[in-house]
Amino acid sequence: MSTVDRRPIMTAGLTALALAAGIGLLGATAAQAQQQPPIKIGLLPPVTGPLASPGADMVNGFRLFWEQANNTAGGRKIEVVIGDTTCNPDQALAQARRLVLQEKVNILVGPLCGHEGPAVAQVSKETGVPLVMDAAGADNVTKWDRTPTVVRTAVSSSQIGHPFGEYLYKELGLRNATFIGADYTFGHEVTLGAIKTFTALGGKVAKLIWNPIGTKDYGTTISTIPADTDGVVAVVVGADRIRLFEDWYNFGMDKKLKIYGGYWLQEDMLSQVDDRAVGMIANSLHYAAGIDTPENKAFVDAYVAKYKRLPSWFSESAYTAALWVKTAIDSIGGKVEDRDAFLKAMRTVQVKAPRGPLKLDAYDNPVQNVYISKIAKVKHPVLGDVLVPTPVKTYEAVSQFWTWTPEEFMARGPYKR
Amino acid sequence: MMRLLLAIIALAVVLAVPAFAGEFWTTLLTQIMIFALLALSADLLLGSAGLFSLCQASFFAVAAYTTAILQVRHGVGTLIAAPAGVLAGTLLALVFAFAVRTRGVYFILITLAFGYIVWGVAYRWASFTGGDNGVTNVPLPAIGPLRVTGTTQYYYVVLVVVLLCVWAYRILTASPFGLSLRGIKSSETRMRSLGYDIGRHLYMAFVLAGVFASIAGVLYVYHNRFINPVAGSFPVSVEAVLMAIIGGSGTILGPFIGAGIVLILRNWVSGFFHYYTGMLGIVFIVTVLWAPKGIMGLIARWKSGDRGEGV
Amino acid sequence: MRSVILQAINGISLGALLFLLSSGFTLTFGLMRVVNMAYGAYYLLGGYIGLTIARATGSFELAIVGGGLAVVVLGYGVDRFLIRPIGSNHLAQVLLTVGVAFVIGEVCLAIWGGDNLKIPTSAYLRGSIVLPGELYYPKYRFALILFGIFAAISLWLLYHKTQIGAVVRAGVDDREMVNATGINVDRLFVLVSALASFFAGVAGVVGGAFLTLNPGAEWDILVLALVVVIIGGLGSLEGAILGSVIVGLLDAYGRWLLPEFSYFVLFGPMAVLLLFRVTGIFGKEH
Fold this sequence. Notes:
The structure holds three protein chains of three kinds.
Chain A (H helix, E strand, L loop, with lengths): L1 H18 L10 H6 L3 E5 L8 H17 L3 E2 L2 E7 L6 H14 L4 E3 L7 H11 L3 E3 L16 E3 L4 H14 L5 E7 L2 H16 L3 E8 L6 H5 L8 E5 L4 H11 L8 E5 L17 E5 L8 H14 L5 H19 L7 H10 L2 E3 L2 E5 L5 E15 L3 E15 L7 H7 L5
Parallel strand pairs in A: 1-3, 1-4, 4-5, 5-6, 7-8, 7-9, 9-10
Antiparallel strand pairs in A: 2-3, 11-14, 12-13, 13-14, 14-15
Helix pairs in contact in A: 1-10, 1-11, 3-11, 4-5, 6-7, 11-12
Chain B lengths: L1 H47 L7 H19 L3 H19 L7 H21 L1 H4 L12 E2 L2 E2 L3 H24 L1 H11 L1 H6 L4 H27 L9 H14 L5 H15 L8 H15 L3 H10 L8
Antiparallel strand pairs in B: 1-2
Helix pairs in contact in B: 1-6, 1-9, 1-10, 1-11, 2-3, 2-4, 2-9, 3-9, 6-9, 7-9, 10-11, 10-13
Chain C lengths: L1 H31 L6 H19 L2 H27 L3 H23 L15 E4 L3 E4 H23 L1 H11 L1 H6 L4 H27 L5 H16 L4 H21 L4 H15 L10
Antiparallel strand pairs in C: 1-2
Helix pairs in contact in C: 1-5, 1-8, 1-9, 1-10, 2-3, 2-4, 2-8, 2-9, 3-4, 3-8, 5-6, 9-10
């Protein structure tokens, strides 16, 4: 089994090493590893609280990578220290400070919740400890409110919205769409990003409905969808994803209209919905467990073998953040104490992650593929019959600025409801 | 004499903390002092007047937001932004103070409703408050050429402000006003028959508690350097009261001890023990069952030589 | 017009769920003067246990009963060993029961994890009913409304038409007097408290089937139940019924008509009501 486990890391590692600047550093020997103190990485997931489940995915993905990599990078041992943010910015800040000041971590990775992002970035700014922003998507961080010591390895919220608007217009043929968006920053950025590209092509918004997170009753929302709309787009999170799914059928909407997920049916909740989901457009995301590449297959196999469930984008994202960090550390021979060198390495190396090839743009956000995925039913050797989001269309090398120039985008300002 | 000596030693230790304890404990102590001030504000109502307020976080957050928005968006200096924050929180307290028309469990519940309204506004009025992203990049405080540049300096700023507040609090609770509040707590009817205007006393107490909470809010925003709706949420209000009770309601040191226990549990213990929320729950249960007067109560009992089991 | 009707049904179905939770809260307060903030956690735990039962047996009905009974056992333990010893101090009760809720939440997270879990219902509760005018409505919600009405009527009858109810009502009004008549008030407390716990557990299963269960759900639902109790008046069964309907409707219409102010719509009227009628609509001064 261990040979299977090693495959993604070997592929990824080799590619990365070939591309990385410090190619000659393979010589960093075992002897050196013993002399140097371990590199400490602080991970900031919500272990408890309402987002404990994505938090667990994040920890699992991160741990899986380091296990495969033998807990070493750049010839030094890696130690992962976890701070539980509970998805509360105040707590995220306190934990980030603890990791930096008490645990003396060399690098911070996280947080997961969007609104924790600015809090942890604040600590990075104060202390100069590099922050590899994983999962938190706030557009601001890699656009109007950048911090020199912060790079993002996951995704910028509106980056997944833009391709979807185009997909709605060109591939699904929608002209008069209704949008249901989660009413908080992430929801605004994804939804309004999709609307921007959709309307730019000539599409019309029949109605835009903002739903607070934790909406108990989508019946209310559903009954206000205009009758003349030709399709409904959902950008919802958390428990709301299941509630919307159930209510959509319960209120008989499946007989009247089509619904498409901009951000909706993900790996972690698919076991809670049934076969009605098969064939639905699930997400426009930078990851889907059904991506058909050797890198992803190896990753999914290893993940399923260890945790008995499909990886979500949070799992992949943490795994890739670890891969990216390792690639950068390798390229500078493990000298993470030189923070500038580490950040420079993060900004220049390219990685081939389970989700595809990645590199940072000039604004520290990954240029990456965005996948429109559909739900497929798959017979999995370990998990049995499972629903898997499977890409049906790939937008390659999508920039956070989509097709605009950074200057145009920046001048336009953030997406706000 | 003994007390004075103890106080001097304590002050010396507190002053020397940044020198020997390292940056982590310095920031944690800063945070503890700020939340202790918030707990003290809740205890002004609870320990003195017997009112359990669940909206102290509202004044805390409104003050913090006001200061943050003035500093970040309008470039206003600390000299104006900080007092403006306290003023805004106090104005809100002037309105919410009408809650003293109610007592007991109704007071708890109405302040809970107030708390939710403030949190809801902070969260949903995104164009003004920044929604769930909040307001970021709050600078460190600076008045003219005097600038705070790091955690150690800010520690001393907080220390001075909090000590001044404690001093004011002492004067307040020892004053005739404070004594009549205690009178109201033990017997409202008696105080009324003695001719006290109960409503006005409680109204004043509520507003003053709002002032202390607002000062804590301003200190908080410069400590965290950002503000977010969570600061005004229900759990923050509950914790403020719980800190006071754990430490010992009706005392000055109590809220500090309580804030210390809760924050150390959350910020430090959580690093190596993941069930700390459950542990916090157990602390609450144990406090109620075996130490209803909090840690200070235990100390008092120990000092008076009563080591028996009775409460 | 369609929307108006739909929202009304939506509101009432949420109200039915809230009634199950708030009736227990209000009755235990009325009779025992206990403010139990752990009812939200009872709801969550009942739901999770129901989920496990439903998965193991495939029976939603068993899940409801099992979830309810499990919480009765827990609720009895909490009452007997934690709440009883501290007496009638509301403050201590709030602190203690918040602590209990924290512990229960932690245990639930450790056992069931952080996923959003939905309790599978019986086949006859799935799908929708078609009302005149092509109006689809989920069967489950109708069943929930009926269940809520059934629960309200049974409680009302128990409260107003039986001997036990008469004693409970007398206890709410004047405890000392009931004590003086030689009735075993303790046993009465246990009974009412068990009933309240049972309802909370049942609410968890019934609610978990359409709202899903996840860490934090206990506080979301508790806050709504508190608003119900405050609006209706602490200690009043009629208040809990009316309050549930009002909160359900406010929530539904508020989200529909004024989505930006949905918190205001709920808490604004409550605050105003409290200022002018401290005890809620039906409450009595305690």
